[in-house]
Amino acid sequence: MDIMNELPEEQFEKVDDLLAFISIYDDENRTKEYFKLLDDSRHLIRGQVCVEAGCGFGLMAERMAALGAKKVYAVEANEHLFDIAKQRLRTNKNIEVVHADIRDFEPQEEVNVLVHEFFGQLLFDEDIHVLDQLQFVPRHILPNQASLQMTVLNSTDFTDEVVSSHVLQKLSGVLVSGLFDAEDVAPNISVMRWPSQDTEKTVVDLSGRQGDLLCFGLEINHENKFVCRAGVCDNWSLVWTPRAGNRFEMEFIPRDRGADIHFNWID
What we know:
The chain is α/β, with parallel strands linked by helices. The protein is built from six helices and 14 strands. The strands form three sheets. Strands 6, 7, 8, 10, 11 and 12 form a six-stranded antiparallel beta sheet that branches.
């Protein structure tokens, strides 16, 4: 879904976020797997204070309240999404919808569980960095692990009359989401992990690996158990680029919203 007409920047951002959440909730696998994660964590939720960070419509806050949370804060910075969540959850006395950036939110009680979905298609390219800027320390973060995975493939297995080998050559050095439809591709070479040990920067050496096409994909885990990945949960697309060497460097530089992605072939 794209906004077709000219809008003031502030209005554009608010509506763009709203459309993004509509797209997120269209991903039924993503919602199902997050609900399963919450259900499996009900012992952490029941009788406790919980937070949904960047709540959107408040589906996860609603689920935690149903699982017996004593209090759930549904925190949302976007004005449109806040209004929608407040209307949707108005009859649930255990949920307080808060209009705030999660980085500015200061609960009066100790928070046992924080649920979030700040992952980008390349892990660090959206807002996962905000979890390092909270005004409170939750005992548990759900989910608490994710990684950017990749694999090296043969482009002849994917190119066609439209995205031909000649077209692919023009995309050298460019990361393209959703370039090919390949749900059966499961990247399995670790590029970066969250939580990260230092900076969101890495150099990857592909020497000895055969193939002329790279495919990247997000994988989400909790306590070393698989939750979902790009291609299975289509909220996150696989990301593609033609191979142009044996080593590349990737770095994410956080902005207030999202992050700048730097991707370069070294040799």
